[in-house]
Design brief:
about 130 residues; alpha+beta; Nuclear Transport Factor 2, Chain: A; six-stranded mixed beta sheet; two-stranded antiparallel sheet; 3 helices; NTF2-like_dom_sf; SnoaL-like; SnoaL-like protein
Length: about 130
């Protein structure tokens, strides 16, 4: 367990991984984003949701850049706690202006390898603007 620097709460390794995952989606600097993606994801990780199905860190990086271009100024944030067992975790996230109500809410299920990196993400969209 690690302690987050800005709070007194204790964070599990899986919760820290999800925080890094969300930060990868938020990082608009291409080099910083790529470094986060390589730290969070296995090289051959697969990401699949209703709008995308990509494999590998190059494709993930391109997907994240595309989402950032589609939703400029929006930030991903955790919605609730991370639930994990064995090598699987699930978590909800929101996408919206920083500090505001999310306009998109989703739910991801991730598989985590023994080295602590994500090997697969199965995403679901719970709320999408019309």
């Amino acid at each position: 367990m690690t302690t987050t620097p800005d709070t007194d709460r204790t964070e599990t390794p899986t919760a820290a991984l999800v925080a890094d995952y969300l930060q990868a989606w938020n990082s608009t600097d291409p080099q910083a984003r790529r470094a986060l993606i390589e730290r969070v994801f296995a090289p051959d990780a697969r990401y699949v949701d209703p709008l995308a199905d990509v494999t590998g860190t190059d494709a993930l990086d391109a997907l994240v850049a595309g989402v950032q271009a589609q939703f400029p100024g929006m930030q991903f944030s955790a919605v609730g706690e991370v639930d994990a067992h064995h090598d699987v975790c699930r978590f909800r996230w929101g996408l919206g202006p920083e500090g505001a109500e999310p306009v998109v809410i989703g739910f991801d299920v991730a598989t985590v390898a023994a080295d602590g990196r994500i090997t697969a993400v199965h995403g679901f969209l719970d709320r999408v603007p019309g």
